[in-house]
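REQUEST ID: PR-0412
SUBMITTED BY: lab tech R.K.
PRIORITY: routine
TASK: structure prediction, single protein chain
INPUT:
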Amino acid sequence: MTQRKEQKQIPCVCDKHYIKERLQGMGVRKGMVLLVQGKMEKLGKIIGGAQTLIDAIMEVIGYEGTLVMPAFTPYKKDPACLWDGKEYREQWEQIRKGERPFDRKLDAPRNTLAAQFMRNEGVLRSHHPLYSFLAWGKYAKVIVEKHPLHFGLNEESPLGKLCELNGYVLLFGCGYASCAVFQMANHALDLPVRLVSVPIAKGGETAFQELLDIPYQNDVFQEVGMVMEDRKIVEFMYINNDRCRLFSAREAVNIAITYGHLKNGAFA
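STATUS: complete
OUTPUT:
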């Protein structure tokens, strides 16, 4: 990828035309398979909000392209598996009895951009109760189908399919530490296996099922991103004063794996 000159601008009110120009200027093109992650609050004023941003991306890549977003729902874990679960340990059984099974139509991701994307016509969602992905476009079904329950971010997950399709990652309003594609690299390292319990529908009732997983880390992903920037494989562009990043998913995973092995086989 040829690196283009950054164009930082003073804050302004953004419309769809402006965003499309920014995207095309950094290398987003028709037919691209694109994993997008972003925080709308970092982008400043966009006329029409998150839907304008989504429309702009869809129009640039076209339906021959594919737009993908993580739609993670970590709040669906058994309370014993949540980092703050000990604060209400006495209510664990009450929570378990009242919890609904994961529903890919009703359980919205907390991220504003992904929650809005989920409402669009033609968007499909994978079935994973914790690590589901949303997809729209040519390869949407290929990406979201057959999402394994165990080790939900491994090479057989939508992240692996993104890499197989030579997809790219676009980050808005967030850094490398938030980038989901790096989590796939953890599965190439010698990390301990853990159990995570999640609610699923079984016989018309809610049952908690244990899934095999690994402890996902993001402590050094910012460092991995800096390595990528040093190798000049990251494109930059500004929307208002937010620095957006575009890079190959496959290259990112390969560099993260190499970096992880250099860290004695684990990111932590």
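NOTES: The longest helix spans residues 249-262.
REVIEWED BY: pending
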